[in-house]
Amino acid sequence: MNYTRKRALLACDFCRHRKRKCDGGRPRCSTCEESNADCIYKELPADRVEPSSPGAVVERLTRIEALLEEQSQRLDDLTRGTQDTTPGLWSPLATRSALHPLDVSHSPQIAAASPASVSNRSQENLLDTRQSEQAQFLIPHGHSTSANSLLAWPRVKALIGDYPEDYFFTIEQSLPLPTCLDIPNDTTDHLPLPALNPSVLESLAQNYFSLVHPNFPLFTYQEFGAWHANLYKRGPENTPETAICLCVYALGCLVSPGDDRVDAEVQAKKDQLALQFFQPALRIILRHTVWGFRPSMEVCQSLILASSYFAHLGRPLHSWKMADYASQKFISLHDRLKRAGINTDHNDNYMRLFWSCFMIECDRAAELDVPRSGIEPQADKMPLPRTLNVTENNDVLYFVAETAIRRLLNRIHSSLYSREHADINALAEDPAMLNNISLHKLLTLSSELNRQLEEWYHSIPGKIRPPIGTEPVANDRGKVLRIRYYAARHIIHRPFVLYVALQQPSAPTGHITGSPPPLLPLPRVVREKCQVCIGSCQTYLYNVVEMLDKRSPYLWTFSQSCMACLLVLLLSKSSPQLASFTPDLMPLTALVLPRLRRWATPGSSFEAEVKILESLTRGTPTA
């Protein structure tokens, strides 16, 4: 049975709003025919539309949305094993041979197989049948993608020491908040603010909209202006709008321009002023979160801003907690509006709020095994934001592009790093399972995921698409997209480095006695995949270090990813089969360490990361 699906270049309104597949039939597509619905297509000019015009941008956003759905469907088909059994476009053998002319003669697992057995394996489900029920590809609990999971690998333990499985979670959980934020005193209704004039507040708001707002464009500058004017006219009130304004000022303090690398006192003063705005904001937010019985958009928005504040401070658990509250409130709000029959598909701020909750929760679930709010499974039902406000430039485009790769990263976590379904992860507990790994599974899934990554990259509008490599990028949003690209490229190909690294004793080379066991021959395709992973780790580090110099919502995430990349490079450097094309770790570690030391306050996970990487440079275990 051929499972190839036809998709219209532009779906009709009914299919697009309901996340259905549209075959483009005229006068009505098959879905509208079955549903007896009006089939209306958004007409576009026949000639090429100017790339900067609103119509062209909306069309591009629509195509990105369709791309997300198509990519998920293709991966779902692949994992279910429903593709055509003849060597077609999506069969495992065809996918493999189309992307790489494999040299399988040196692989004991592939070369020893008869043509009949290879054919039979190509028709088997590529994952456990239970994964076929997980068509949404949610980030699984206990996945092994995080930096902490790499610390559990026997080879890594032998090289840098033994660390508990929840090492960084425990550190962050034990890290106290500033006293003024720890269960804020709520005995008075007085909300003191720093004595600042309107021009200073306006400057802080400008900082926010220039440097913070593009990451999570929750509302327009005009909407904020009304709240800001009301606050200055009437003074602070116990309302979510007041909390939003105070969070905006606090975030504007944290990111105020200046050469903070030279003078740490400058950043300390900014942080202290930000705290004076954030303390009363948090009191209002928590009061409405705990004792507010009817959720609202403004409460959710203020919680996301509080999450962003903690993220800029490198506090991942506190950031997650605020976002978790926001997600729960949003789900409650969404259910209430749905029961009331209110259509929110065209409320752009509503969509922006949902995808902000989604992004933050997924980032934290990828790094720390935190509880889930239930927001992630809703992603397949929510449209992407598409309203273009002239004051926001390309913010929505960047936001949608980052949302798309976050969803692809979720599929990577689910397909390659789920403990239930990915054989490569069992090696951390039992290296003897090396011979049981299905290279066919790894090759096929990694090739499909990498194809989807490249498709995502080329779907980004040309005017905001960052160049591949290390060429300078004009703004932080472009830098983040490129960093996400190399993060995904690295983890798609990481299983092959782990596969090779496990083919040797777990003790460091200098401590091995007697003759080492013979190494398995390395198939050419596996070597190529390892080279892609190693190159992606190196390029990731070159791209990310600049972002570690300043406060951003990615500060902790990027620090963890840096350590993960360096640990993967450590594994490959310690492998005789990979060492020759692995770069020297010393210069790369020297790039990262000074940046992490800046944030390494006593008892923080930044401090723990510094100690681990310092031991890596010394070659001595620290735990």
Keywords:
DNA binding, metal-binding, XnlR_reg_dom, Zn2-C6_fun-type_DNA-bd_sf, CD2-Gal4, 623 residues, Zn2Cys6_DnaBD, 56% helix
Task: Briefly say what this structure is.
The chain has 623 residues and is mostly helical.
Task: Give an overview in words.
This protein has 623 residues and is an all-alpha fold. α10 packs across α12. It has helices at residues 13-17, 30-35, 54-80, 92-99, 108-111, 115-122, 147-150, 154-160, 167-174, 198-211, 221-234, 240-254, 264-291, 297-312, 316-339, 348-367, 395-416, 439-459, 476-501, 524-544, 555-573, 585-599, 605-618. The chain starts with 12 loop residues before the first helix and ends in a 5-residue tail after the last helix. It folds into three domains: 1-66, CD2-Gal4; 147-172 and 396-508 and 531-618, no CATH class; 195-392, no CATH class. The model is unreliable at 1-9, 43-54, 81-135, 431-436 and 506-513 (pLDDT under 50). The chain is built from 23 helices and no strands. The longest helix has 28 residues, at 264-291. Keywords: Metal-binding, Nucleus. This is Zn(2)-C6 fungal-type domain-containing protein. Pfam families: Fungal_trans, Zn_clus.
Shape category: globular
Helix content: 55-70%
Number of strands: 0
Radius of gyration, in Å, reads 25 Å
How far apart are the first and last residues' alpha carbons, in Å?
A: 55 Å
Q: Give the ordered list of helices and strands.
A: HHHHHHHHHHHHHHHHHHHHHHH
Structural class: mainly alpha
Low-confidence stretches: 1-9, 43-54, 81-135, 431-436, 506-513
- How is the biggest beta sheet arranged? none
Strand content: under 5%
Mean pLDDT: 77
How many H/I helical runs? 23
Number of structural domains: 3
Pfam family, one: Fungal_trans
InterPro entries: EcdB-like_regulator, XnlR_reg_dom, Zn2-C6_fun-type_DNA-bd_sf, Zn2Cys6_DnaBD
Domain Zn(2)-C6 fungal-type: 11-41
GO molecular function: DNA binding; DNA-binding transcription factor activity, RNA polymerase II-specific; zinc ion binding
